[in-house]
Every structure is written in C-alpha cells, then in structure tokens.
Specification:
0% helix, mainly beta, three-stranded antiparallel sheet, 24% strand, globular, single chain
C-alpha cells in the first residue's frame, strides 16, 4: 500500500549531492563521483552525515 512519504521511482528524479571539501552542489541521476572543482567526494544531501 503506497504512503504519502514514498518517493516516486522514475527517471526524472534527481538527487542533490554536496562536495564534502569545497561545498560544491550538483544535481544528478546517480552519484557524480569526484568534485570537478577540488577532487573531493560527494555526499547525497538527503542522507545524514551521522
């Protein structure tokens, strides 16, 4: 049974990623790898850093 909190699983859904070193923010369909500005790693902003 679907709930209102469920996330639609479609190709148009992009996630927001933030570089943990310089703070660069990008939107992408999948993990963007390394930051083009500083070679730092990206973290999905929807995920907790804890």
């Amino acid at each position: 049974m679907p709930h209102h909190q469920d996330i639609a699983d479609d190709a148009e859904t992009k996630s927001t990623y933030e570089c943990l070193v310089c703070g660069n923010i990008v939107r992408a369909d999948s993990h963007p790898g390394e930051c083009p500005d500083c070679d730092g790693g990206f973290q999905n902003r929807a995920m907790s850093l804890e």
